[in-house]
Structure formats: structure tokens, C-alpha cells
Amino acid sequence: MKSSLTKILPKVLGTAIIIVIIAYLSKKLYLSWSEIPFETISFNYKFLILSIVGLFFSFLCALISWQIILFSLGAKIGFKKSWWVITGSYLAKYIPGHIWSIGGRMYLCKKEGISEKISGTGMVLEMISLLSAALLASLLFIPSIIDKSISTWMLGMLALIPITLVMLFTPLLNIILKLTARYIFKKEISLEIKKSWLGLNLLIYIFNVVIQGIAFFLLILSIYPIPVSNLPPVIGLYNGAWATGFLSFITPGGLGVREGAVALLLKSYMPFPMAIIIAGVSRIWVMIFEIIIAGIGFIIRK
What we know:
By secondary structure, this protein is an all-alpha fold. The chain contains 13 helices and no strands. About 75% of the residues lie in helices and about 0% in strands.
């Protein structure tokens, strides 16, 4: 009974949070509909295409980083197989809890001859590195946001930066990996990883999240005119919102939480209802892209 409750409760809480956030944003959009500057809204397919190109290059960074992580752990995987392994597990992230995304990746890696011990360790390293990169990108562009009414919770998020870096570059990493393996993967892990590989990987992930922030800015331009001078703060707030969604473990893929964070941060640069619309469009934008590259990955693998 207790086990069933433990499994169901996160899903119920996650669903409740998503409903509350969507209801709040929908109400705000309805009440402020008249504030939407319809006269300035126009669809620019060139910027939309460029934004998708940006997402693609961001994905390539993630793919290369995954290959580097596996190589640092003593395993190798080809470009085509790596593409399929990453994209094939994308849909699993929309199940509450990151464990399903990890499990999907581990299953596909096992099919390619990579042990669960290595792939599971790699996923933990990837998540810590990606979170660190997003937080560092937010910190990098904070000076351009600070003059706006930035939410205090985003400033608080930046306090996690030293924690994630300590987790990556100190003996604490091995402790985390052992505990994760023991209680989640039911395996023992004892792997030595060179700090130089972790550093290189973190740099690639920072490049990755900055490119994704630029792609998001291009998505905004495809719908709503925004000054180019706002590019740095948009990169910063996008990554801050992404990190917030990532840390909301009980909402699948950060659904709702990330959109709420994007809308609240973006309203300093445009009318709030417009920020809500763009936040919603950004989720559809990412999901369609992930489905497309997963389909390409399936074809490549076949």
C-alpha cells in the first residue's frame, strides 16, 4: 500500500502543479487579452527556420557531449547510434521524475552493447553538467537582467552554482554516483573519471545552452519584434527558467513550471499576455523538434 502511494503521489502532485500553473496563465491571458499588441505581431518564417537550426546545433552539442561522457567512462558509441539513443529516450522525459528518461537511455544503450553501469553513470553526469551549464549561463548574463524586476527566486537559483560545481569536481561526485547506483540502479559503481574530461564536457554544455538561448530569441523574433539588445537577458532568463523546470522533478519535462518561469521573466521585456503566448509556443516548438529528430534517429538506426 505504501509503495503504491509513493508511486502515485508524485504523479498526482505533478499533475496538480501543471493544472494550477496553466489555469493561472490562462486566466491572466484572458483578463489581459486587450493588452496584446496585435498590430506588431507578424509571422517571420526566416527567423523560425533559424531558431530550428539553432536547436539542431544545440542538439549536436548534446550528442557530442554524450559521446565524450561515455568515452571518459571507457565506452564508445558511434554518431548514428548516439543520435538514436539520445532521441529515442526523449519521450520518456514527459513521465514524472527524471528516472524514466534515465531508464529509457540505459535501455537503448544496453541494446548497443553499453552496460547499464556506464550508461546510468553517464546520465547522472549529463544531468549535473547540464544543470551547471544552464545556471552558469544565467549567471553570465545576469548583469544584463539586473536592471529589470528580476524575480528573487532566479537569484536564489544562482546559489546552486557552487553546489553543482562541487558535485562535479570533488570526491563528492563519486559518492553521488555510488548512492545513485545503489538505490536507483541497484548496482555498485566505482569509476574513475578525469577532471579534464568533465571540464571539457561542461564547456560544451555551456556552449549548448547559450545556443539554445539564442534559438529561443530567434523564436520570439519570428512572432514579436524585440530589440537585439535584449538578446543577452533573454539567454539568461531562458536558461534560468529551464533550470527551474529541470529541478521540478514531479512535473514531467518541467511542463508548466518552465513555461510559468519563462512568462514571469519575459514580461519585463514585453506585455505579459505576449510573454504567456511565447512561453506556450516555446514548449510546442521544442516538442515538435524532439519528435522530428527522434524520427530521423529511428530512420538512421534502421
